[in-house]
Design goal:
Elements lengths: L6 H13 L13 H17 L3 E5 L10 E3 H10 L4 H4 L4 H7 L1 H11 L6 H24 L2 E3 L1 H14 L15
Antiparallel strand pairs: 1-2, 1-3
Helix pairs in contact: 2-8, 3-5, 5-7, 6-7
């Protein structure tokens, strides 16, 4: 670590030392192994989340037990309801946006191997983050409680998208 480093440089230095050190297969400063490990782990969490309870209605005093919905049920219902005109003209459109996170994430994953699609991929990633926020607003407006499946779903998505935070280092000029 150099003396006189700014806060941003110190943070980046420790981030790179902790998570982005080079492995024996990659050149120093160009290792992407941590990014790929993060994405694979994220994909595993993302897929697992579909089979776990994702959300439930708020329990009412003296009422029946609230309905609990698994991730794949939430995904299917919200995606199918995106073809309902009434849903788009109500507060339920926020739930529809959450249903489009999954197809957008698949599009993101298709764009992933192509460097020429970096900016479209980042735009898709940004839209996914906005739709995640819409999901939480829906949970607030329609008293719903996120459960383990939802938490793992979001964690998986964030781990997959986290690789975009790793900026590409600029090529150093060749010595003359």
């Amino acid at each position: 670590m150099r003396a006189g480093m700014g806060y941003d440089e110190v943070f980046r230095f420790f981030l790179e030392e902790a998570f982005m050190t080079h492995c024996s297969h990659c050149a120093p400063g160009h290792c992407r192994c941590a990014v790929w490990i993060s994405r694979v782990l994220g994909l595993g969490l993302y897929i697992t989340a579909f089979f776990l309870p994702a959300c439930r209605e708020v329990a009412q005093p003296g009422g029946d037990a609230p309905d609990v919905y698994r991730g794949y049920i939430c995904a299917g219902v919200t995606l199918v309801n995106s073809f309902s005109r009434e849903m788009w003209h109500s507060q339920d459109f926020l739930a529809i946006l959450s249903g489009w996170i999954n197809p957008l994430l698949l599009l993101y994953l298709v764009f992933l191997p192509f460097t020429v699609l970096r900016w479209p991929r980042r735009v898709v990633g940004g839209i996914i983050l906005l739709f995640i926020a819409a999901t939480w607003i829906f949970f607030h407006l329609h008293p719903m409680v996120p459960l383990l499946g939802h938490v793992l779903w979001i964690a998986g998505i964030l781990l997959i998208l986290a690789g975009e935070l790793r900026s590409q280092k600029k090529a150093e000029p060749a010595a003359a």
